[in-house]
Amino acid sequence: MLRAGAPGTSAKCRGRNPTIYLERSNTIGHAPVMMTVYVKTLMKRIPGVERAAQVLGLAPNGQPTWLLEMLPKNSVGAEIGVWKGDFSQAVLIAAHPKELHLIDPWKYQSSSTYKYAWYGGLAKNGQDEMDRHYNGVCSRFEDQIRREQVEIHRGFSADVLSQFPDDFFDWVYIDGNHMYEFVKKDLELAYRKTKAGGLVCGDDYVDGQWWQDGVKKAVDEFGRSPTVQLLELRDRQFVFRRK
């Protein structure tokens, strides 16, 4: 267990969906904590809950403000796993990035492995629901896309990241497919594509869950490398600096 111490053929928002989808995932859910998911959803409807979250050190979308404050201003960053763009919005407000690359396939997964994933069994309308989220993100960041501050890449993170030069990003945030092999690949690619001194960070460093410790196992292995420094490990978030 750890202790804290320009791309090529990306899918753009053009008012229609690409015909080819690549398998990847983002926001997650699982049976043992489904009640937590429902409670969080209900809490968003309670007047004053956002202010209470800020007092507790959380951003309105539930992301720790300390992590957002660690992201360098006027930076070039990437978010793997976008879903509806809540974290993306928080990043734009807190870090004012020069470029923010949003990476997600918005692809429905029918496999029983993803029975408790928001992009799998919990997506009652299947691929139509994924397309709706993608179109919603395109609309949500229409102004930033027009200003070339935000670029949306609809595709598998391994394929999208590989199109960028090495040492390109100031930071990469990983919240994609939580199964071990995918997290491991995202960490390896994020390390290569991040500048020396840049940040490799992400979500859901926890035991158990439907992804079978995938995030924790991959992050623990990554943290044993002498080429990275663990900066923070709290609130389910992990932050490394590339040496």
How would you describe the overall organization of this protein?
With 243 residues, this protein is of the alpha/beta class. The protein has a single domain (61-242), classed as Rossmann fold (3-Layer(aba) Sandwich). It is 34% helix and 17% strand. The protein contains nine helices and seven strands. The longest helix is centred in the middle third of the chain and has 15 residues, at 126-140. It is globular, with a radius of gyration of 17 Å.
* Model regions low in confidence, pLDDT < 50 over at least 5 residues: 5-9, 14-61
- Give the overall shape, derived from the CA principal axes: globular
Q: Give the full name of the CATH homologous superfamily.
A: Vaccinia Virus protein VP39
What value does the average pLDDT take? Answer: 80
Using only C-alpha atoms, the radius of gyration works out to: 17 Å
The SS-based structural class is: alpha/beta
Main beta-sheet annotation: 7 strands, mixed
Helix run count: 9
Give me the count of strands: 7
CATH T-level topology: Rossmann fold
User: How far is the N terminus from the C terminus?
Assistant: 21 Å
Strand content: 15-25%
Based on the coordinates given, report the CATH architecture: 3-Layer(aba) Sandwich
- The topology string of helices and strands comes to HHHEHEHHEHEHEHEE
Q: Helicity level, as a percent range?
A: 25-40%
